[in-house]
Amino acid sequence: MPGFELFGDMERREVQKVLDSGVLMRYGFDGMRNGQWKARELEKALAERMQTRHAQLVSSGTAALTVAMASAGVGAGDEVILPTFTFVASFEAVLALGAVPVLANIDDTLTLNPESVRQAINPRTKVIMPVHMCGSMADLGALSEIAREHNLLLIEDACQAIGGSYAGKPLGSIGDLGCFSFDYVKTITCGEGGALITNNETYYRHADHFSDHGHDHKGSDRGAEGHPFLGYNYRISELNAAVGVAQIKRLDSFLEIQEQNYRILEEAIRDIPTVSLRRVPQSGIQNYSFLNFFMDTGAMARKAHKALLEAGVDGCFYWFDNNWHYHRKWEHLKNQVSLGKLPQEVQDRLSGMEDQDFSLSDQWMGKAISVLIKIGWSENEVTTRASRLQKVLKGL
Ligand SMILES: *Cc1c(COP(=O)(O)O)cnc(C)c1O
Hints:
The chain has 396 residues and is an alpha/beta fold. Helix content is 38%, strand content 14%.
């Protein structure tokens, strides 16, 4: 998955242009910048690639989630439905707004189970946030329908699935808003950075202002710009954006390599009787950043994970035991361990999460294993890896 594997001359050239101009900020300094507007350039390229009207760059994927929700009016006490399998960033972004993360079960897609989402909806629910984990997507058809039915926002976290699609549309472009991360380990990177995409003019305008202290970006004098509402600073720097300008041009070639490597590994394991592949929703196309599969039992999966690592198959994950991506280890969230006080309303509604029944999630996650697909592997590395994977899983 990581774009940093193929980081090189193209990225260096774009960064050099920014260094030569000396303007490291994305706004203002028009006269000094030698026509270099890297953040704008990347926003244009991203919107085009994702077939949306707008893209707004921000400082991280986490920031993209916060800004996306804020731009659509999510605030204190609003409930956001998230899957039990995601990166901690998802609930951090919600808490940053004084809103309340509500966890719902996953299914054999390793993403939100639409039925569990239905059960989690109440009058305070404002957002359904599917997270397209490990390269594949949630059932966006079913989730869009639920969102429409209950008049909820659908905000896609596509941080781990950039380049994938559903029903012919790029992931991230299907919900009201979609979010990407360009941190150092994602499919394409800016070093640090993120973006939201949307077709909604108002959300875009809000995101543009909100991520820059509320600046309305009207006129040429930053000091004289208006502040129609409160904002924060979630800006990306020109240096980071410059890296992304080069990387997005390479996205489709990265995806091609990723898919090739994925297919070789998939081929090696698909006929093993104790292995079944993760379900990809109908009309969905993965970005192939991970190979995800289930073993017949949880005990087998744990054993397989250990054996794979011992056999030198690195980048192999048993998420069930992972600190950062699965609800079982989120005791800091469940016990509300926060440096300062959380809003009373958030405290009240987080209490009880500890006792929530996530056995449906545990059932699937307990059996799941993911193997990271790298794009820098040589042919020999891929085939060696494929045969090791096959040997270990067959021998269990
Ligand atoms: C990486 C990631 C994020 C956060 O992105 P950052 O740029 O690291 O803040 C959010 N959600 C998911 C699913 C991610 O993988």
